[in-house]
Amino acid sequence: MSTTRLTIDHRTKEPARHPEKAHRQDNPIQRKPAWIRVKAPNHPVYHETKALIRDNRLVTVCEEAACPNIGECWSQRHATMMIMGDTCTRACSFCNVRTGQPLALDADEPRRVADAVAKLGLRHVVITSVDRDDLVDGGAEHFAEVIRSIRRAAPETTIEVLTPDFLRKPGGTEIVAAARPDVFNHNLETVPRLYPSIRPGARYYQSLRLLDRVKQIDPSIFTKSGLMVGLGETKPEIMQVMDDLRVADVDFLTIGQYLQPTVKHAAVESFVTPDEFAEYASIARAKGFLLVSATPLTRSSYHADTDFAALRAARQSATGAGLPA
What pLDDT does 68 receive? Predict the structure, then answer.
């Protein structure tokens, strides 16, 4: 858990977004190749979605993580809700989410999230969160209450959760799984060798155990995990992670290009080409994942609604019978 002192950003005169990174050496941000550049958002529905998010006092990972797909997704009324505040107790070197000491949980948040889901008319919604190592259960019960609230307000909406690892939070995984989300996503993010520098507050095998445990609790729940590339990993390392995920019976793998948020974050070591992403996708499909999304702009919740439909169809095709949505 982060115990950083309050640091002021002297440019804005406000608390620094990443105080733990303030004294790190700068990593110059490389110019992005043509296949990664996106247009600035200007669609009318984008602004409608933004207004609804503001009116309901919600936080989205789309904004907090500076997602490059925000214009496309919000123009289609797709927004990934980030619950439990905007401040994370960890300090991963790839992540743009604010770090520090979070505020207490907002008991009204599940209702507001559910109300926004209903107003947006979402077929599928992704709920994620900051890490909350300060909470006894890591926020698991809050996740469960958000799921229950959405079920009441929008019973036809399918629900995907993207959770923390619940490290040293016994029972956290079980609490969320018992609320029966349609998809339980937890990202490994990178290869084990890079965890000390990229994801120092996490443990690779804890994340694998979480995904495996969800399948043990309820095999009907789809499991999903994501990786970033371009951080210095090797192809054999990525293939080993794929094998580890298949041992845990993970259904869906996403792979996307890491993009450096600021000069204080981990440097981009390489821009992986579209052809290399296509090769990763082919390898992953051959290893038995029901669904794979591997492109430079792939993110965990990118095209999540259409991906869920494809995931369900893939399972039905593989088993020869349908399962409840």
Answer: 64
